[in-house]
């Protein structure tokens, strides 16, 4: 059985490449791959682009078979599940109404406070056409690529929360590194104290919370969202809730990456925020060209008068062009230092 | 079969079949569908023809081919390039050195022999990946991969045996 019932050949045939040479080539390949990974990434994306039609066609029966297999067990408690879902639906409707009211109120407050609105985000809806499952790597392949405006680094979310982020883009396909993958590192914020941390994947279903400030104690079920640090991902995307495991904290993800079918690729680009133009009335008196205030009269008050300091450096916004600001020729008398704001 | 100007079609096809099987195995392993569920890795199908023909006809499965099969696995999987190539070459080297011991096994012993080869491949992959990423990795993924690959060999082995007996053997005149 072991060898299919066939006799073992002792002949080696013609001379082949020696094993030692092949071993050296294998080591060289690792080093070359580390140095020029982009070369192989292009090959991968070209391959996935080429296989896209086949993947799209074969996806449906495979997913159907998977669903059918997973639903065999659920058949026996479908009645209880139905009751539970009805109850949950009623509860969610109440929350939905409450959320609408609060959303309107928040908009009014933002309008009253002249708050800077959240950056607008566009998104591309894509379909999962493949999942690669390896011991140390967990990725999915989407049927949207550069042609759809997808770029590496963009967040991938489903209706429940974040799944991962794009790390390779082909013309029509893109590869997504999942939050559970070993190479995944996401800056997160943990509610309600907005504790900043890094969430790292370790190939387990629940990623780990790392780089948390010393002494910070997190509570179970505290919500984890993206912090937006680094301007790579938008802030506030829901990820999961905290689950304490021994001395460490892990995150139970909202999104189920194993069942996600249609996902959104969020195109987030934080536009540079320009400060509003400073009016004459807001400028300090010296900078506005007004006469300096009269010095205080000696003995005018019993309390010691504060020592007057020269006016603080004033930020002068660029008028029309984006050239670096240069000190005006007629401002040499006060010698205002560069603020570094430009 | 007739010789066509120095080119022997039968010999070519008999040489190509083991490599073709391995490349099909690479494609199946890296098929982006979770046939075994999301938390069980895909079996190393490519290792099965490599192991089989390395024992039965090592002239049909040379080290150079094994390196190329590993490279194919590297390119198709999202793993860093070269890790599967090196793992396959290491496994091949061990099988080649201990060929007599492996080839003498029969029945469930042969399955055990393949399980040993799979263990070597998974261990090599684990160690090289850990060194590459400079991080101690969780072993659970490798253990699952080892288990599922060893089990799948029971199903694939009859196909390999049949192909060797019915296709590769008759195509070779020196068989």
Structure explained in plain terms:
Chain A has 342 residues and is of the alpha+beta class. Chain A has a domain at 118-267: Rod shape-determining protein MreC, domain 1 (Thrombin, subunit H), CATH 2.40.10. Helices cover 27% and strands 21% of the residues of chain A. Chain A has a 6-stranded antiparallel barrel. The longest helix of chain A has 38 residues, at 37-74. The termini of chain A are far apart. Chain B is mostly helical and 175 residues long. Chain B has one domain: Arp2/3 complex 21 kDa subunit ARPC3. Chain B is built from 7 helices and no strands. Chain B is globular, with a radius of gyration of 17 Å. Chain B starts with 8 loop residues before the first helix and ends with a helix. At the A-B interface, helix 1, helix 2, strand 1 and strand 2 of A face helix 2, helix 3, helix 4, helix 6 and helix 7 of B. Chain A: Residues 128-266 form the Rod shape-determining protein MreC beta-barrel core domain. Chain A: It comes from Rhizomicrobium electricum. Chain A: This is Cell shape-determining protein MreC.
Give a quick rundown of the structure.
The complex is a heterodimer of chains A (342) and B (175). Chain A has 342 residues and is an alpha+beta fold.
Write the layout of secondary structure elements.
The complex is a heterodimer of chains A (342) and B (175).
Chain A: H1 19-35, H2 37-74, H3 78-113, E1 122-133, E2 138-142, E3 155-157, E4 162-169, E5 174-178, E6 185-190, E7 195-200, E8 208-210, E9 223-226, E10 238-245, E11 248-253, E12 262-267
Antiparallel strand pairs in A: 1-2, 1-12, 2-5, 3-4, 3-12, 4-5, 6-7, 6-9, 7-8, 9-10, 10-11
Chain B: H1 9-29, H2 47-56, H3 63-76, H4 83-97, H5 99-103, H6 108-133, H7 140-171
Helix pairs in contact in B: 1-2, 1-3, 1-7, 2-4, 3-4, 4-6, 6-7
